[in-house]
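PROTEIN SPECIFICATION:
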Amino acid sequence: AAIAQRHPHRLGPEDPRAFALGGAAYIVYNAPRVGPVPRAGRCSRCMYVQRVLPAATEPVILRYPQSRLEEKNWAYLGSSDGSAHALLFARYVDPHEVLSCVDGECSSVYNTSASAFFHSLKKQYDLKTIHLGTNSVPACTRPG
């Protein structure tokens, strides 16, 4: 833990979330940014997407100009065109923000707030924060 506090940028990939699309399996995760990345905002820990099955590909950095220093826990929502080239992600719960990422270039396409609801939920259950999760998806299927 002491190393993580002194050198948070040296930790590797974290918080993988799996999803399936078009017969392939993908993961979205955060990891340190390596070198300068145009249009990636300020992130030192950026979001990446990578196909892992049936064959692994190189990770693609998800570039969002309004990125914070640490981007984490984006949740896959779907594809706007049915391909891995146009993906939709939920970036935050509140304010709820949906990003459209086309070939790694991301832009905000929807924003809303549920602050009153989340405030009451946190108070009722004595929660400090609420984080995004991921849906459970099968990585492969076996014939019946």
Notes: Strands lie at 14-21, 24-32, 45-53, 60-62, 75-79, 86-92, 96-102, 105-112. The first strand starts at residue 14 and ends at 21.
